[in-house]
Amino acid sequence: MPKFKPHTGTGKRVKVTGKGKIVREKAGKRHLLEGKSSHVTRRMTGTIEVAKVDTPRVKKLLGR
């Protein structure tokens, strides 16, 4: 039986907290920031929890 390999790209994008929640960064704050207003870029800061419908799929990719 082959060993399970976790998806390395998903591991770089999400983090599992101590209580088991999966958190991610918000999208849209990597480039083209000059054209975006400051309150839009401020809204994109920080981390949020992955949506509940996506959590089982992300956990499977992480091997949890």
UniProtKB/TrEMBL annotation:
Family affiliation: Belongs to the bacterial ribosomal protein bL35 family.
Entry-linked NCBIfam families: rpmI_bact
Keywords tagged on the record: Ribonucleoprotein, Ribosomal protein
Source superkingdom: Bacteria
A GO CC annotation given for this chain: ribosome
Keyword Kinase attributed: no
Originating gene: rpmI
InterPro entries: Ribosomal_bL35, Ribosomal_bL35-like, Ribosomal_bL35_sf
Keyword Kinase part of the UniProt annotation: no
Protein's recorded name: Large ribosomal subunit protein bL35
A Pfam short name: Ribosomal_L35p
